[in-house]
# Entry
Amino acid sequence: MKTKIANPKTALLLEAGLNVLHFESVEWLDTIAFWKDEVKFFYKILSEKESSEKNNSDYHRMLKTLDKIHLDLFDDLEHSIIEHEKLLSKIEQGHKGVSDYEYREKHRHIYARMDTFTNDFKNFKRVVFQYIKGL
# Structure
């Protein structure tokens, strides 16, 4: 039987104060901003090789993946985090109908998305680096 080992950092963070969760959200936004810069850099490098790689399917797949990462994933993640921070603001202002539990559950969900995307993006970068080294 396979058992999934929970990430202890996640469990600890979700029990932390809202200020700690807010700090992590700010870190996520900084990370996404850095990733956007990386994608621009990769796109620039790969675009410079475009004329010699017109018939290379790996090359075209990487460019399409870069577009998808930039347009869909980054923007969607960033939007989710900003909305998440707005929920925190409502909690701090004492708005009715919002709860600490709701915020923590949303935070857990975003944490999982960031973790998955971080791993996927690292793998994508390895592919790009290998491709560029082979040029």
Q: What stands out?
A: Residues 1-5 have pLDDT under 50 and may be disordered.
